[in-house]
Amino acid sequence: MEWYKQLYYGDKPKYPIGLAYTTSDRFEGAAIVGIFKISDSHDYRVTVYCFGEDTSMLQEALLRTNRIKWNSPESTIFFTAIPEKLLPVVQRCVSGQGFGIVQTENIVYQWKTPDHLNSLNYSCPPEVRVAPLGLEHVELIRKNWSNLPASAEYIETLIKHNINLGVYSRATGELCAWVLCNEFCALTMMHTMENHRRKGYAQLLCNAMSERLLRAGIIARAVVMEENRPSLKLFESHKFRSSRDFFIYVLAMPRRAVDSGQWEI
Q1: Pick from 46, 211, 220, 257: most CB atoms within 10 A?
Q2: How far does CA 63 lie from the centroid of its chain?
Q3: Are 110 and 243 in contact (CB under 8 A)?
């Protein structure tokens, strides 16, 4: 199989953070496999898409690629935002490679286009300031997000290469809330510390991040767990559109690890 390769970048153009592979040089007839991997890590984040109804090329691409070390007992594969119709393809590939599915989550895709830029109107409360995150915040973010393998390395990479924002107390310098952009420039890991909730900091971050992305000509987007009603309401209140289609997160690990229950999610 011949692959067509495309680098993709974060907020800093000199540093590619991922690869997209297609099975054709024409997108309308291609299957696409996007792979994000941190150097020296066994943690893969993979997204797939197929423009046509025939998914055989996509399945072959996943099964035959040597960009994913399927034979490593330490590998974890996190399929991100998979269209619901492609879930059977992912399930067949995972099973065929001796992996098991640990977790699946339904998500809703939401977005706002650059023509909404002029409608943004917000102010920062006087007791806080908005500024980028630093690497000293990696462990705090990880503790409030995920225990998955390589989570800390993943967060560090996003802070280094992508747009991110935190809300800081002017009096103490404490980080009160934050939001990052993932490898596809979608808002992720938005969180407000418990003692700072109901102060409007999530709304502040949503507006501030949307403004930065839209001014750069980037669609402001978010992927939200279906059961996370507060976040869905937050983005809807800020005029984000919602897809009618469901997307799915799938976490897969080697069958031996799944059966032994060695991973704590």
Answers
A1: 220
A2: 23
A3: yes
Higher pLDDT, 99 or 1: 99
First to last CA, the chain: 36
50 three-state secondary structure: strand
Look at residues 48, 24, 19, 53 and name the one whose alpha carbon lies nearest to residue 35.
Answer: 19
Residue corresponding to tokens 């020296």:
40
The Cα 82–Cα 91 span in angstroms is 11
DSSP 8-state code for residue 227: T
CA distance 148 to 182: 16
Identify the band that residue 244 occupies on the pLDDT scale cut at 50, 70 and 90: confident
Q: What is the pLDDT of residues 200-240, one digit of tens each?
A: 999 999 999 999 999 988 999 998 999 999 999 999 999 89
The DSSP H or E segment spanning 234 is helix 229-237
